[in-house]
Amino acid sequence: MAITKERLPRARVSLEIEVDQERVEKHMDRAVARLSKQVRVPGFRPGKVPRRNLERHVGTAALLQEALEELVPEVYQEALLSEEIDAIDQPEFSLKSTEPLVVTAIVPVRPDVDLKDYKSLRAPKPEVNITEEQVSDALTSIRRRHAVLEPVDRVVAWNDTVRADVTVSVDGQAEPHVEEDAEFPVREGSVVSLPGFVEKLIGLERGVAHHIEFDLPEDFGAEELAGKTAKYDITIHEVKQEVLPEVDDEFVVSLDEEGVSTVAEMDARIRSDLQSQAERMLIGDYQDEIVDLLVATASLDYPEVLVDREIDRIIDRESNHASHTPEGLNNWLNAVGKTLEGLREELKERADLTVRRALVIGQLIEDEAIEVTDEMIDAEIDSLAGQMGGAGASNPDSVAAIRGLFDTPDGRASIKNQLITKTALERLVEICSQPESEGDAAPRASRRRRGAAASSDEATDDSVDESAATTEDGAETTTETTEA
C-alpha cells in the first residue's frame, strides 16, 4: 500500500493510505463469508450465498462497508508502524475514494515541546519582610491561648467575652434563631452570628434586655439575606475581661517549646516561623509566575484531545465523580444550572492553561534529567507518617501502621511523581531567581499571570511579553510519500 504522511497543526498527522485492489478483493471475500451467514437470501443456505447474489441482495455499498470494518483498522495499524507514528488517541477516518480505495486518517500525536533558552529566564523572587506588628500580633495570639477570663462589672468592651441569651431574626425568615447562655468573644474584625453584630455590643450593660437592628451588606454571601434587616434581642448575663499573662522567661518555659526557654529565644522563634509561613505563601504564587513565564517563552504544539481530557478531569473532580454515570452527570448539571456544552466551553481556557503548564514542566523534568530515588521516596513516606502520627508519633507500631498506608505500589508511584514535580519547580526557582548580569536581555516575568496571556488558540504563537514579537513553531506542514 502507498502511504502519504502530512504533519498538521495542533500535533496531528494526516495519513492517506491507498490500498491495492488485490487486498481489497480479499477483504470483500471475507465480508461475503461473514454476511452470508447473517443475511437470509432465498434459495441459498446460510454461509453458502455466492458473492454476486449477496451483492445483488444487500448492495455493493453495504458489502464494501462490511469489508472496511476489518480492512481500515488493519491498514491503519500497519501505517502507524511503517511511519513510526506515536498516536495518543483514536483517529478520524474518512473515505477519499473507492476505486482505488484511499482512506484518510487524521491522528493526534505526542506534543512537541521546546523550552528554548529556558536557563536564561529571570524573575525577581519576592522578598519577605516581617513587621514588628506581625510579631506583636503573633505574640498576642500565644498569650491569648493562655489568658484568664475574669468577670467584671462594667459595659462590654473590645476583647471581652460575654455570656448571653440571644434571639435573632432576619426580615423574611419565618422563625427566629434562639440561643441561651451562649458564650463568645468580642473582637475587632471577627464575625459572630452575622456581620455587624459584634460591633453593636460595645457599650452594652449586663443584666439588661437590649434590642439591636442593622442592615446586612448588599454583597452578603447568602443571597437570601443580602440587604435584609437583622434584629437581635439580647440579654447579657456576664462580661469577662481577658487577662493576658506577662511575657517573661517563666511564661516562656511554661509553653514547653523545645529549644525555647527565654523571651529572646521565643521572639527569634516567632520571627522564624512568620518568615517561613510568609515564604510558603509567596512561593506558590512565584512558582505559578515562573511556570507561566516558561509557558510564554516555550514553543508548544499539542493536540486538542489533551484539553478535552483535562476538561473531563475538571468536571469529574468538581462534580465529586457524578460524571461517572449519565444520570449522575445530568443531576449535577441541573444542580449547578449549566449545560454540558456550555460548561465545557467555560472550562476550555482553564484546561488549556493547565495542559500548557503540565507540558512545560514535563519537558523541564526531561531536559534537567530529574530523577527520584527509592531512598527519597522512603524519606518522604517517613515524614508523612510522622506528621499524621501526631501524639502517637513516638509509638513505632502506630507509625508503622500509618506508613503502610503510603508504602504501596500506587502510593509510591504517586509520591514519586509529586517529588519529581517538586524538584522540577525548585530547579526552575533556582534558575529564574538568579541575579541578572549587566546587559542581560533575557525574558523576564511581570507581576501578572503569564499563562493567561499565552493561552491563544494558535499553539505556535506564544507571547513572550508586550515588546516581543511572536514566533512560529513550524506551522508549515511537511509531506512525505513512501511505499510500504
Task: Give the topology, please.
Blueprint: E1 2-8, E2 12-19, H1 21-38, H2 51-58, H3 60-83, E3 92-98, E4 101-108, E5 112-114, H4 132-145, E6 148-151, E7 161-170, E8 177-185, H5 197-201, E9 209-215, E10 229-243, H6 249-254, H7 263-297, E11 299-301, H8 304-318, H9 326-336, H10 340-367, H11 374-389, H12 396-406, H13 409-432, H14 450-454, E12 479-483
Antiparallel strand pairs: 1-2, 1-12, 2-4, 3-4, 5-11, 6-10, 7-8, 7-10, 9-10
Helix pairs in contact: 1-3, 2-3, 4-7, 7-10, 7-13, 8-10, 10-13, 11-12, 11-13
Fold and architecture overview:
The chain is α+β, with helices and mostly antiparallel strands and 484 residues long. It has 14 helices and twelve strands. A hairpin with a 2-residue loop joins strand 3 (92-98) and strand 4 (101-108). Helix 1 (21-38) packs across helix 3 (60-83), helix 7 crosses helix 13 and helix 10 packs across helix 13 (409-432). The chain is elongated, with a radius of gyration of 35 Å.
